[in-house]
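Our consortium's second objective concerns turning raw sequence data into structural hypotheses that experimental partners can test. To show how far this objective has progressed, the report includes one record in full. It was chosen at random from the queue rather than selected for favorable results. The single chain below, 141 residues long, was entered without modification.
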Amino acid sequence: MKTIAFLDVWSIEHLLSGISVGKIVSSLHQRIYTNLLGSDRSLIRTSYFDLIGVLFLAYFWETTEHYLETGLMGSAVSNWFQGIEFWGNRLITDPLVLVIGYYLGQHFPFLVIYARLASCVWLIIHIFVFPHSMYLHTLFQ
């Protein structure tokens, strides 16, 4: 399951996070460009900077998650993660799904609020209700 799969149930959360985080990164860059350059963002090609910001946050989270899975915060947290994620999922699929979420949020801005709400509900249920991170996956097996 988690240790051998390119996609898992958390890919849904990565998509929702990509929509939400992409909007935050884009808004932050908008403020920076306006304050520093005094120009409208539409006059400058900035999507590359947004993409780099989203990828930075994706890999930062994946690094943090790896250390949590290996027991850096104790065995209770490590047990909740249910093993170490497959390298292909961690290094390729999860960041790619986050980037897809970013582009969805850019093309369909009305999705941002719904993605944030769904992401909060997802995290609350998976962290505080379900006994471990892959519980939903085990229900569908």
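The partners drew two points from this record. The first helix runs from residue 10 to 37. The helical segments are 10-37, 47-69, 75-81, 87-107, 111-129, 135-139. Both points have been shared with the crystallography group to help prioritize constructs.
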